[in-house]
Amino acid sequence: MFALASDNPAEVRRVLESGEAGPNDAVGPQSALAFTLASTQLTHRTEMVKLLLAYGADPSALAEHARARPGSRMSRASLESVLRDESNPMSSILEDMDPATRYWLARAEAPQTRRTSALIHRSFFRPLARVRYDLIGQDRVLEQLFRVLSMPSMAPIVVLLCGPSGHGKSLLARKFGSLLDVPTHTVNMTTLRSTHDIWRSYSMNPYEAPSTCTLGEFLIEQEGKRCVVVLDEIEKVEDEKMLSSLLMPWELGRCSFEAGHRHVDVSQVVWLATSNIGHDLVFEHQRERQVPEAPLSREEYVDLMGLLRPRVSERLGPSLLSRVTTVLPFAPFTKEEKLAIAAEALYALAADVVRTMTPATIDSMVRKSLDAYLPAEGARSLYRAVSTQLLDAV
Ligand SMILES: Nc1ncnc2c1ncn2[C@@H]1O[C@H](COP(=O)(O)OP(=O)(O)OP(=O)(O)O)[C@@H](O)[C@H]1O
Ligand SMILES: [Mg+2]
C-alpha cells in the first residue's frame, strides 16, 4: 500500500518483483487493484494499474470488493457487470476511467490473454507474457511469437517483425530483453557501410546510456548465455550483401567476426529484426477483410503471414529468409486500440496536467485526436495529435 500510495511505479514494480507483496493482496478492505483505481489523485495511476495486472492482479476482485460483505456470495463478474451494478462503489469509478485503463482491464479479463500467456507458462520466456501490458493490440503477433518460443528447437531463434510504421515493432523488440532481464544489443542497420560493420556497431537504444562495446564484444561477453540482439530497420541496410554475415550465426549458432578468428557460440542469442517490408500488404489485407473493425482471427493472421513471407524473400533473399524462424506482420489498430494509445499518449506527455482534467475533458481530447489518425504512421500520428491538443489546451 505504501508503494501504491507513494505514486511511485518503480517502487511498485520492485515490491511485486521481489514478492514482498502479491498483486492480489488486500489494501485495507479492498484489493490493491480497487485501491489504485479509486485513488484518482495519483499521477501514475494507469501505470500502476498496468503493473498490478502484468503481475497477475485479478480484475474480478473489483466485483468482489463490493460484495465482500458478511454473508454475501463472492461472485466472479466481468467489468461490464461491475459497471451495471450501481450498488458497487467501483461502478462510478470504472465509468469515469480513461480509455487506456479501461483497455488494460478488459485485456486482463479476456480469455484470449490467458490462453496466449499459457503458451509460454512453463518456459524460460514466461516473463514475456507481461509485454501484454506494454503493447496495445497486436494480440496475434504475441500469440504467434509465444508459439514459436514454446517450441523445442535446436536452431537459433530468429524473429522478423514486419509491417507499417508506428505499430509497435521497435517497442516489442526493446521490451523483449528487459522483461526477460537479459542483456540486449540494438544495431541500427541503416548505419552499416561494409560487411563487417555489423560486428563493429555500438548499441543504439534511446532509453539506455550509449553503449561502450561493439556487437562483437557483446557477443563474446555473452557467449553461451541468453541475450537479445535487435537488428532495427534490417531492410534499410545500404547493400543487402552485408546481411550475409548473419547466415552462419543464424544457421549454426556460431560466428567468427573476422577471418582467422575463433568461432564464438551465439546459439543462445534471440535475434529480433524489424522492417517495414509488406506494410502495403498489411493494409491491402485489412481492406479485404469482411469485418475490418473486428480483431484478427488466428486464421486471418496465418493467411497474412503466408502473404508476407514471399515478399520478404524477394527483398532479403531466400537463403537468409530460410533461416528465419518466423515472420510476424503487425496489424492495423482497432478503434478501441487507437483510443487506448491516445489516452496513453496524454499521460505520457503531460501526466500532471491530465490529473487536473475532468474525465469528460480527457475523453473528448482522446476522441478528437482520432480525427488526425494516419494509418501509415500508426501510433506516432496519435502522439502528435494529442500533443497539438495539449498545446492548445495549455
Ligand atoms: N502497439 C503499440 N502499443 C502502444 N504504443 C505503441 C504501439 N505502437 C507504437 N506505439 C507508440 O509509438 C511509438 C513508436 O512505435 P515503434 O517505435 O514501436 O514503431 P515501429 O513499429 O518500430 O515503427 P517504424 O517502422 O517506423 O520503426 C512507441 O514508442 C510507442 O510510444
Ligand atoms: Mg521501429
TrEMBL record:
Which GO molecular-function terms appear in the entry?
ATP binding; ATP hydrolysis activity
Transmembrane residue ranges: none
CDD domains attached to this UniProt entry: AAA
Instruction: Tell me which Gene Ontology terms the entry assigns under biological process.
Output: cellular response to heat
Q: Name one GO cellular component term.
A: cytoplasm
A Pfam entry, by short name:
AAA_5
| Domain (AAA+ ATPase) ranges | 155-293
Q: Say which domain of life the source belongs to.
A: Eukaryota
For this UniProt record, give its keywords in alphabetical order, as a comma-separated list: ATP-binding, Nucleotide-binding
InterPro entries according to UniProt: AAA+_ATPase, ATPase_dyneun-rel_AAA, ClpA_ClpB, P-loop_NTPase
Q: What is this protein called?
A: AAA+ ATPase domain-containing protein
Q: Which organism is it from?
A: Ceriporiopsis subvermispora (strain B) (White-rot fungus)
